[in-house]
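Q: Given only this backbone (135 positions), what sequence would you predict?
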Protein backbone atom coordinates (compact mmCIF):
# COMPACT_ATOMS: atom_id res chain seq x y z
CA UNK A 1 0.00 0.00 0.00
CA UNK A 2 2.32 2.69 -1.28
CA UNK A 3 -0.27 5.39 -1.90
CA UNK A 4 -1.41 7.45 1.08
CA UNK A 5 -5.12 8.30 0.96
CA UNK A 6 -6.57 11.80 1.24
CA UNK A 7 -6.84 11.72 5.02
CA UNK A 8 -3.16 10.99 5.59
CA UNK A 9 -3.17 11.64 9.35
CA UNK A 10 -6.05 9.28 10.06
CA UNK A 11 -4.53 6.71 7.72
CA UNK A 12 -1.11 6.86 9.40
CA UNK A 13 -2.74 6.62 12.82
CA UNK A 14 -4.74 3.66 11.55
CA UNK A 15 -1.64 1.86 10.32
CA UNK A 16 0.06 2.34 13.69
CA UNK A 17 -2.96 1.16 15.69
CA UNK A 18 -3.57 -1.78 13.34
CA UNK A 19 0.05 -2.86 13.74
CA UNK A 20 -0.13 -2.52 17.54
CA UNK A 21 -3.23 -4.71 17.71
CA UNK A 22 -2.80 -7.27 14.92
CA UNK A 23 1.00 -7.29 14.76
CA UNK A 24 3.46 -6.41 12.02
CA UNK A 25 3.42 -9.84 10.31
CA UNK A 26 -0.35 -9.72 9.73
CA UNK A 27 -0.36 -6.12 8.49
CA UNK A 28 2.66 -6.78 6.25
CA UNK A 29 0.84 -9.74 4.67
CA UNK A 30 -2.31 -7.67 4.16
CA UNK A 31 -0.33 -4.87 2.52
CA UNK A 32 1.58 -7.22 0.21
CA UNK A 33 -1.58 -9.05 -0.85
CA UNK A 34 -3.56 -5.87 -1.62
CA UNK A 35 -4.48 -5.44 -5.27
CA UNK A 36 -5.92 -2.61 -7.32
CA UNK A 37 -9.31 -4.24 -6.72
CA UNK A 38 -9.24 -4.22 -2.90
CA UNK A 39 -6.81 -1.35 -2.23
CA UNK A 40 -9.65 1.17 -1.63
CA UNK A 41 -11.20 -1.26 0.88
CA UNK A 42 -7.87 -1.68 2.70
CA UNK A 43 -7.51 2.11 2.90
CA UNK A 44 -11.08 2.48 4.16
CA UNK A 45 -10.72 -0.06 6.98
CA UNK A 46 -7.34 1.36 7.95
CA UNK A 47 -8.82 4.85 8.25
CA UNK A 48 -12.27 4.04 9.62
CA UNK A 49 -11.75 1.00 11.83
CA UNK A 50 -8.18 1.53 12.97
CA UNK A 51 -7.59 5.28 12.53
CA UNK A 52 -10.97 6.35 13.89
CA UNK A 53 -12.71 3.75 16.07
CA UNK A 54 -9.75 1.83 17.54
CA UNK A 55 -7.77 5.08 17.98
CA UNK A 56 -10.48 6.84 20.00
CA UNK A 57 -9.85 7.69 23.64
CA UNK A 58 -12.23 6.58 26.35
CA UNK A 59 -11.85 2.82 26.48
CA UNK A 60 -8.79 0.62 26.40
CA UNK A 61 -7.61 -1.72 23.67
CA UNK A 62 -8.54 -4.56 26.01
CA UNK A 63 -12.13 -3.32 26.21
CA UNK A 64 -12.31 -2.70 22.45
CA UNK A 65 -10.97 -6.18 21.90
CA UNK A 66 -13.67 -7.74 24.07
CA UNK A 67 -16.40 -5.76 22.31
CA UNK A 68 -15.01 -6.77 18.92
CA UNK A 69 -14.84 -10.44 19.91
CA UNK A 70 -18.44 -10.41 21.16
CA UNK A 71 -19.70 -8.74 17.99
CA UNK A 72 -17.79 -11.05 15.66
CA UNK A 73 -19.02 -14.08 17.62
CA UNK A 74 -22.62 -12.86 17.58
CA UNK A 75 -22.48 -12.25 13.84
CA UNK A 76 -20.77 -15.56 13.10
CA UNK A 77 -17.69 -14.05 11.46
CA UNK A 78 -15.37 -16.87 12.47
CA UNK A 79 -12.34 -15.96 10.35
CA UNK A 80 -12.25 -12.44 11.77
CA UNK A 81 -13.01 -13.84 15.22
CA UNK A 82 -9.93 -16.06 15.01
CA UNK A 83 -7.81 -13.09 13.90
CA UNK A 84 -8.99 -10.97 16.83
CA UNK A 85 -8.57 -13.84 19.28
CA UNK A 86 -4.91 -14.01 18.23
CA UNK A 87 -4.65 -10.25 18.68
CA UNK A 88 -5.53 -10.49 22.37
CA UNK A 89 -1.84 -11.08 23.09
CA UNK A 90 -1.44 -7.43 22.06
CA UNK A 91 -4.64 -5.98 23.55
CA UNK A 92 -4.44 -7.46 27.04
CA UNK A 93 -7.78 -9.30 26.93
CA UNK A 94 -7.29 -12.48 28.96
CA UNK A 95 -8.87 -15.83 28.24
CA UNK A 96 -11.10 -15.22 31.25
CA UNK A 97 -12.21 -11.90 29.67
CA UNK A 98 -12.94 -13.71 26.43
CA UNK A 99 -14.95 -16.40 28.20
CA UNK A 100 -17.06 -13.72 29.90
CA UNK A 101 -17.65 -11.94 26.58
CA UNK A 102 -18.79 -15.21 25.00
CA UNK A 103 -21.15 -15.91 27.93
CA UNK A 104 -22.75 -12.54 27.16
CA UNK A 105 -23.01 -13.62 23.53
CA UNK A 106 -24.88 -16.73 24.63
CA UNK A 107 -27.51 -14.69 26.47
CA UNK A 108 -27.87 -11.75 24.09
CA UNK A 109 -27.14 -13.32 20.68
CA UNK A 110 -27.88 -16.99 21.24
CA UNK A 111 -26.32 -20.20 22.46
CA UNK A 112 -25.39 -21.44 18.94
CA UNK A 113 -23.34 -18.27 18.29
CA UNK A 114 -21.54 -18.64 21.62
CA UNK A 115 -21.01 -22.37 21.08
CA UNK A 116 -19.30 -21.63 17.75
CA UNK A 117 -17.23 -18.85 19.33
CA UNK A 118 -16.02 -21.15 22.10
CA UNK A 119 -15.10 -23.78 19.48
CA UNK A 120 -13.13 -21.24 17.42
CA UNK A 121 -11.41 -19.92 20.56
CA UNK A 122 -10.37 -23.40 21.68
CA UNK A 123 -8.85 -24.05 18.23
CA UNK A 124 -7.04 -20.69 18.22
CA UNK A 125 -5.78 -21.07 21.79
CA UNK A 126 -4.48 -24.54 21.00
CA UNK A 127 -2.66 -23.11 17.97
CA UNK A 128 -1.30 -20.19 20.01
CA UNK A 129 -0.10 -22.44 22.81
CA UNK A 130 1.89 -24.46 20.28
CA UNK A 131 3.45 -21.59 18.33
CA UNK A 132 5.04 -18.24 19.13
CA UNK A 133 4.19 -16.07 16.09
CA UNK A 134 0.69 -16.97 14.93
CA UNK A 135 -0.49 -13.51 13.83
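A: Predicted residues:
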Amino acid sequence: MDEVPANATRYRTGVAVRRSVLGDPHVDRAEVSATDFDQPFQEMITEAAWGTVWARPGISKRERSMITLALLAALGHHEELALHLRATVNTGASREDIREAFLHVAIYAGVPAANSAFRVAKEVFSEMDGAKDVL
